[in-house]
Amino acid sequence: MDTQPSILVIDDEPDNFDVIETLLDGEGYQLHYAPSGQQALTRLSSFQPDVILLDVMMPDLDGMEVCRRIKADPQWQTVPVVMVTALTAKEDLARCLGAGADDFISKPINSLELRARVNSMLRIKQQYDNLQALLKLREDMVNTIVHDLRNPLTSIVLSTEILRFPGLSFQKQQQKIEQIAIACQQLQSLINSLLIMAKLESGKMVLNYTEVDLCGLCISALADVEAIADQKNLTLISELPKPGDTVKVDAAIFRRVLDNLLSNAIKFSPSNSQVILRAENLAAGGTKIQVADSGSGIPESLRQSIFEKYEIGTVNPQVSQIGLGLAFCKMAIDAHHGRIIVEDNYPKGSTFTVLL
Ligand SMILES: Nc1ncnc2c1ncn2[C@@H]1O[C@H](COP(=O)(O)OP(=O)(O)OP(=O)(O)O)[C@@H](O)[C@H]1O
Ligand SMILES: [Mg+2]
User: Fold this and answer.
1) Is 290 in the pocket of ligand 1 (CB under 6 A)?
2) Domain ranges, residue 294
3) CATH code of residue 104
């Protein structure tokens, strides 16, 4: 809804519109006027008000019929209709509701009552609009996920087809098997992230805390991204504590956090640059882990939003951007009662810091 809610007043008597305008004065509404049912229906095809105030007694198309037509059209039926009526018999009021009206107000109109009814209708409309927006977001998310699942799956199907060719060289076979393995890993990782995030969100995730060797954890995370880093000729640098320094975390989840941060650093770094992984137990207690790169960096204005689901910050057509990695990291670190932030790296790039 706009900051100024819009109200369409349908009444054959222009004086009545003036009355309503006066009664609603100062409420910050945008008032529109249609002098007949037919004109109102024509008007509605190009304009959606937030509330309709509809006179019952009008020549030609009366208010009941206009209401019935509005409520019969899927495009309009969610706009609340308040019938304005001089009729007071219970049967007439029942007829208004029977025609699909959401509320009614009797003439002579009382200012307080009119404002209260309009506000209550606007509140309902706003709730409905919010729900619609949420549904749309869900639908977009589902589409994105299905799309992201399809890419690796297509790769598996194609590679399997090729493997069926008789006489395929041993080298080609190995290459296809490797591609299948990578695609399977992508699928598994995406599905695991989605499942763990859903669990973290529902508050039902029970973290399985253990004392983990910090140095070992980092080394194994680095080993897993070595191959992708090699493809871009990146140097992976580690500044790690001596073996034996431990951190109390859910090892599996924490590993995924490191994987995500390293994979981002690699993905958003130019070839031939450096990615640094630092980890240390702080003298004052707690653990600090940093992943620093010399990539594009993250503009100040996006440093909050990239931690939200499906937020991809600056669009980079050269790489896949789903927007789940950092949302996962944030949720996982929150669950550990820690913090994750991003800052500039000098002279260029970004540094992600996890504090536990
Ligand atoms: N190290 C980085 N350097 C520059 N930009 C980054 C970096 N890490 C994240 N970003 C930005 O933040 C966005 C969100 O990151 P996030 O990890 O949540 O999603 P993603 O990498 O796009 O997709 P995925 O779900 O596969 O991780 C990225 O798309 C990118 O624009
Ligand atoms: Mg990522």
Assistant:
1) no
2) 209-355
3) 3.40.50.2300
